[in-house]
Design goal:
Layout: H1 4-26, H2 30-50, H3 54-80, H4 85-90
Length: about 100
């Protein structure tokens, strides 16, 4: 069984990643946001398997909701971002294809 200290360390790690994801979203760094979100979700699954008290259940649920919200923001940001910026820059006005 995992110790409380391990649970806290993992929780803090997830919270730090959530903060980094928030900054990545603000900076519109889609891939960075996705990578960190994926890592945070992996750690959350580990954290959920460590839950041993009501307080830990509440913490796991809170982190789960937080990551779900960040995931929605990342997906929205990814949908808005053009697929290939370089192609858009090369296109000249009035040019026929």
């Amino acid at each position: 069984m995992a110790s409380v200290a391990e649970f806290i360390e993992l929780r803090e790690s997830i919270e730090a990643l959530a903060g980094q994801i928030t900054l990545s979203v603000k900076n519109k760094a889609v891939q960075d946001s996705k990578d960190r979100l994926e890592e945070a979700n992996r750690k959350l699954e580990t954290l959920k398997s460590m839950v041993a008290s009501d307080v830990q259940v509440i913490v796991a649920d809170r982190l789960s909701r937080q990551l779900t919200g960040l995931s929605a923001k990342v997906e929205t940001m990814a949908a808005k971002k053009p697929a290939r910026k370089t192609a858009a820059k090369k296109k000249e006005p009035g040019a026929t294809g």
